[in-house]
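Figure 6 in text form: structure in, sequence out.
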């Protein structure tokens, strides 16, 4: 598949930084917690692990009221773990 000019590689082996950069690509910008077309496309096309981190990053932005940066990767991974634990708890009680 040919990439668009300037497209960021989010294939297997992509880093948190590259996925975050791809999600933030927008002519009009992206607000904290906002799912733009670029963020949605990145979520769909990234490998599942990175998609789950992007989901956690955008959820965390709503809590922090600011956009997540690459320096927040550890916090995002903790957010993902908390989201997974909450989902598991709900499923266990269903």
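Output sequence:
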């Amino acid at each position: 598949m040919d990439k668009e000019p300037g497209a960021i590689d989010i294939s297997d082996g992509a880093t948190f930084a590259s996925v975050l950069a791809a999600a933030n690509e927008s002519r009009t910008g992206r607000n904290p917690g906002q799912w733009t077309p670029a963020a949605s496309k990145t979520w769909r096309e990234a490998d599942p692990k990175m998609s789950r981190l992007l989901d956690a990053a955008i959820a965390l932005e709503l809590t922090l009221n600011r956009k997540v940066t690459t320096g927040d990767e550890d916090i995002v991974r903790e957010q993902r773990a908390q989201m997974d634990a909450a989902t598991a708890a709900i499923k266990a009680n269903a």
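Caption detail: The helical segments are 16-24, 37-45, 48-64, 73-92.
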